[in-house]
Amino acid sequence: MEKYHEDLNIILIFVSFVWCSGAHTLTPSQAGLFSAVASAFVIEVHSHLLKDPNDETAALLRVLIHKIDNTTFGNNPPTLPQWTGPPKRIVQVQAILLASLGISLLAAFLAMLGKQWLDQFVSTDMRGTAIERSHHRQRKLDGIVAWYFDHVMETLPLMLQAALLLLGCALSRYIWDVNTTVASVVVAVTSLGIILHVSILVVGTASESCPYQTPGARFLRYTFLTTLPSAFHSVRSITRKLFIFVSSKLHDLARGTFCYRLFVEWRSSTVNIAGFLRFVVQMPSALIMDLFFRGPAMLVITLGRMMRHLLVAPVIMGYRWYTTTTPLMHLLGQRAIALDLRCVLWMLQRSSDKTVHLSTLKHLATMMTLVDFDPALVSSCFDVFVGCIKVDVNHRVAIMQGLEQLAAESAMCFLRTFHQLSTVDPGSSVLKDICKRYKRVFPPGVDLSGLPFDYTITKIHALANRSWNPRTIKWEACRPSAQECISFTRSVAEVAHVIYWRTRLQKVPRWTLHFALHYLSLDPIIPTSAIADCLSIIAIDLGCDVLNTGFAMSDERYVRI
Amino acid sequence: MRVGQVASLITQKLNVMIKSEDWRLIRSKRKAVTALLPYAVRKERDGQPEMLDTFLQAAIASRDRDFTWRHIGQYASGIPHETTPRAIVLVLPHIYWGRLTDREALIQRWAAAASEVPRIDEVPQCVVNTLLQIASQRELLSHIPADAWLRLTERPSLPPNCRGRDVGTRTHVVRAVRALKNIEILKSYLLLVWSEWNYFPSDSFGNVSNHGLPAPRPLCIPDRRVNLSLSNSSERGSSTLLPPSGDNR
């Protein structure tokens, strides 16, 4: 937002002395650089659009002198010229100049509106809890993305560049008829500016890491990225149609051959060894007959068709199965969850208040699922957790006084996010970084026994040291506390959910079912929400669509077959 | 609330699978169905037997005698004390006794539960099935209460893919039944386990021939299907396979 404010200020300074915000004042020398320059030329050229009275006066004087002394002008008596309108060149120049001025003023108008939009955005016009306010803020931020606010803001410099280009062209055209030498200088400078800008545009478009980025370059890159795939899709569609056409024609040709008939008969019959052996035995004779009766070309076509059936068709079937089973509809409700997660991340990153951290982490812990969360969330949870503990010289971990609850919440949230990230994306760079940092904070041989959330920290330790293998883990080794159990069952349910839809194996990992079985067997029974998560794992494996609305508290999970 | 929704959804889904009679699909989900068992048992204790009934139906519809997942053994070994006798009786036939721990105590609990449960519906069948499975474990034979064997005389119909029927023809089981010296139990036992799908090892009746009796015929008769649940078949079985009463021991 600050960047846009700065950009708009520059635009307004560059374009016009009009200033929208009363809070800011500009000196006249700063204001209206471009509009003042353009206006000067407009005024200058504008005088050429009208009939010049001085010309008529001079003509009349010449006529008067000729009446007094008819030898003054020789054989060319002066005449009174008739006004036929402004010269074509002047009209062109003035049109271009006015277009330039108009575009720059339009940019100024949009910049003025833009500043109002930004002022409205940064204003805190809502009261409520931190969660509600962050939701409100996140909603506004999402609106900026959804309504292409960035693109609108970035068109303003483009408009200014266009206005500047038009001014340069108009000036060149105007001066050219006045004096070619002077005009050459103007044309050269304008051309140099155009070449420089085009070069920057090309370089900026070609390389994202190039520091000479302009809005035009970003726009072009975005266009290429969106247009090229669709163009590729069109080409692929045409190719496919062509392929189908050629394939059907070849099929018609091949259908009459002995080989192909034998092949189709074999494929349509029941698959068994005897049928295959019969096919293999009869094929050579069919090949010979086709070679004699149909010719080598037809034989090649037939063999090509057969190979297509044997090799290409399974690939196509596999591709179709893969694309048709993509669970697009399963992503319902994820938008709300994603909003929550972005809010949580933002609050953890921006706030240093422990109370805010605690309430945020509590909210994160009660979220039903974490869908495609930003890996930075793991780091944030880890940072909060590390901020609550201290490791003494004897490698004994202790919680700082007064931060026990925050330590427990952050540990559980850290385990939840860490576990999910390590399952879903084991090669993540964030994961590697977290592991390194964890090992620095908790060196080997560290004593974790004094922590109240023993179960959670043990799992974290196993994850960070890459000794976590859920397939062989003994769930019965230790019993988690109720709160840890809720958090951990939820994380396992999420893993089951993600892997079920990601792998397309129509199964959840076996260890998650083992986990559910063990936790449902525990006596005394685990908390209700943990039971719900264990049952959700089973439901997911049975093919039930468990939709998570993600609205904070329990009893909000909808399920349907 | 949420638990109830998910549980009802699972029950609904399982019922759909059972009605479709797609045993391959049910088998492919046997781990998930097994994981459901502890919760179903708990619900049965709370007066909601629907999920347990659905589990049992799924186990039968799978046509798989090893339907349950091996990890259920740990739960079954320490099945909670609050579990109802009906649940114990109905669930234990689906557990492989070879993997259980603390089996002696479990046998006592099972025997107590079997005596408490009303002998209706599938209860006699489950009791006999479990009894034969326990008996098939040689080391557990001595722990079976004597009156538990009397349940064989109820002669419930055992399905072909019943594990108890399959493992109940082992030599030591036959000998144990004969050692009871009760002709009714022996007769019922043979009627229950005798079928074309099972066979008795040749040494099961070894000491019978030692008494000068004709060697027993092989009980596997490929072209002869006998419905053991019918009462009239018992007469045929007894007259053909068993020696005269009083001489067979």
Mind summarizing the main beta sheet of chain A? 2 strands, antiparallel
Structurally, the number of domains of chain B stands at 2
> Which stretches of chain B are low in confidence, meaning pLDDT under 50 for 5 or more residues running?
208-249
State the helicity of chain B in percent bands.
Answer: 55-70%
What does the oligomeric state look like here?
heterodimer
Tell me the greatest interface. A-B, 35 and 30 residues
The end-to-end distance of chain A, rounded to whole angstroms, is: 45 Å
Number of helices of chain B: 14
Average of pLDDT of chain B: 78
Radius of gyration of chain A (Å): 38 Å
How many runs of DSSP E, i.e. beta strands of chain A?
4
> Shape of chain A, please?
flat
State which percent range the strand residues of chain A make up.
under 5%
Radius of gyration of chain B: 19 Å
Head-to-tail CA distance between termini of chain B: 62 Å
Order of helices and strands of chain B: HHHHHHHHHHHHHH
Number of domains of chain A: 3
Largest sheet of chain B: none
Number of helices of chain A: 20
Q: How many β-strand runs of chain B?
A: 0
List keywords for this structure.
heterodimer; A: 561 residues; mainly alpha; 3 domains; two-stranded antiparallel sheet; two-stranded antiparallel ribbon; 4 strands; 2% strand; disordered C terminus; B: 249 residues; 2 domains; globular
What does this structure look like?
The complex is a heterodimer of chains A (561) and B (249). Chain A is mainly α. Chain A folds into 3 domains: 2-215; 223-329, no CATH class; 330-560, no CATH class. Helices cover 70% and strands 2% of the residues of chain A. In chain A, the strands form 2 sheets. Chain A has a two-stranded antiparallel sheet. In chain A, a hairpin with a 5-residue loop joins strand 1 and strand 2. Chain A is flat and about 130 Å long. The relative contact order of chain A is 0.05. The model of chain A is unreliable at 17-31, 323-332 and 548-561 (pLDDT under 50). Helix content of chain B is 55%, strand content 0%. Chain B contains 14 helices and no strands. The chains are: A mainly alpha (561), B mainly alpha (249). At the A-B interface, helix 19, helix 20 and strand 4 of A face helix 1, helix 3 and helix 5 of B.
